[in-house]
Design goal:
The chain has a domain of about 210 residues: MetI-like fold (Orthogonal Bundle), CATH 1.10.3720. It is about 65% helix and about 5% strand. The chain has 16 helices and three strands. It has a three-stranded antiparallel sheet, with no helix packed on it.
């Protein structure tokens, strides 16, 4: 069975489980909500038509020049607002030769990224105050007309028509902060897992294929790292970096979680490499004089991707939970950045009285972890049966 037919077989087995398929769709839906958050909730209009029939898109200024504390993360997500439609168009509608199609897509994607590299659209800067000076005929606002950072109500308001899920401890809209909190959770889940995946896979490949003294030394280092209480170490490091006034708190959380969670990948990859090392195809590669790096990365790694992908999904869920726990304890993402754990922390003084700050963030954390686990568990079964 070749690789392409193997992927098709795994997908066929996976989609037979409707619950797991719904879990995959749920993750995709949350990701799309995270990407298009500025169009779902925000205090700038999506489109304005003035009396002189001049059409403006104030939300573009917010997209290209986000003003939140996590500017790098916001710009990455905002870039995807344009990148995803471009990808769909090129995959479905553009009929060109493969090389020309790929080159055109790369050039257009790079051109779209240019406005994110500088203060674009400054001459047409929009904010809620300047909108009052414009004679508007049509004004289309996002469904929830509140920014996650603005004080749009009284503290601890309950659910109402103005604020669907109420407000937080200083009057910010809870629904808006939950929507933007998806960005933080998915960014931590993806990038922290990516860091640990790269480190763990490299360590596991080298250790498993080399064997001997190298394997012994590397695995003893892995065991020493595992002996450290990870969450306690996370708290200590985050507390230290917070004292140093790091502004991009999400990037710090991603880096620390990623650097402390690679050992699981290393052990799994090493175990799979040990199974593959003595197989005929590896011995044939050695006989032909291929380099160790080529054997490890070009031949062994593609054959052990199944267990790695499953581990990635479970690790992403664990990292999302770790970020929420750190933020709840006050050592993770810092206010005013929107985070599910930070919302839970605001209700800590009286969880029953401020039930809207307990219920909704708790539900979204539970649902997200459940979706990832459903997908990961069924994917593990599908790969094992194929």
């Amino acid at each position: 069975m070749d690789r392409q037919s193997g992927i098709a077989e795994v997908w066929f087995r996976f989609k037979k489980e409707k619950i797991a398929l719904c879990g995959l769709y749920g993750i995709c839906l949350l990701f799309i909500i995270a990407v298009y958050a500025p169009l779902i909730t925000g205090n700038l209009p999506i489109i304005i038509i003035e009396r002189n029939f001049k059409i403006s898109f104030p939300v573009l200024y917010l997209i290209f020049n986000p003003y939140g504390p996590e500017i790098i993360i916001d710009k990455l997500y905002n870039y995807l607002i344009f990148f995803i439609p471009l990808l769909v168009i090129f995959l479905k509608f553009i009929k060109l030769k493969k090389g020309i199609k790929v080159l055109s897509f790369v050039l257009i994607s790079a051109a779209v990224f240019i406005p994110f590299c500088s203060k674009w659209h400054v001459k047409h800067k929009w904010d809620p105050e300047t909108l009052h000076s414009v004679e508007v005929v049509l004004n289309v606002m996002p469904p929830v007309p509140y920014s996650p950072y603005e004080l749009s109500g009284m503290p601890y308001e309950e659910s109402s028509k103005e604020h669907w899920l109420g407000t937080d401890n200083i009057g910010r809209d809870v629904f808006s902060r939950i929507v933007f909190g998806i960005r933080i959770s998915f960014a931590v889940g993806f990038f922290a897992t990516l860091i640990s995946l790269i480190i763990g896979t490299a360590v596991g490949l080298v250790s498993g294929y080399s064997g001997g003294v190298i394997d012994i030394v590397v695995m003893r280092i892995v065991e020493i790292v595992i002996c450290f209480p990870a969450f306690l170490l996370l708290l200590i490091l985050m507390a230290s970096l917070t004292d140093l006034k790091f502004e991009q708190s999400c990037l710090v959380v991603i880096l620390i979680i990623g650097l402390l969670s690679w050992t699981g990948f290393a052990r799994i990859v090493r175990g799979e490499v040990l199974k593959q090392r003595n197989l005929a195809y590896v011995q044939a590669c050695e006989i032909f004089g291929m380099s160790k790096c080529r054997i490890m990365f070009n031949h062994i790694l593609p054959n052990i991707l199944g267990p790695i992908i499953v581990t990635v999904i479970f690790a992403a869920a664990a990292n999302i939970m770790a970020e929420s726990g750190l933020s709840f304890l006050g050592f993770g993402v810092q206010s005013p950045t929107a985070s599910w754990g930070e919302l839970l922390k605001e209700a800590f003084t009286d969880p029953l009285r401020y039930w809207n700050l307990t219920l909704w963030p708790g539900l979204i954390i539970f649902a997200t972890i459940l979706l990832f686990n459903l997908v990961g568990e069924n994917l593990r079964k599908s790969i094992g049966e194929s």
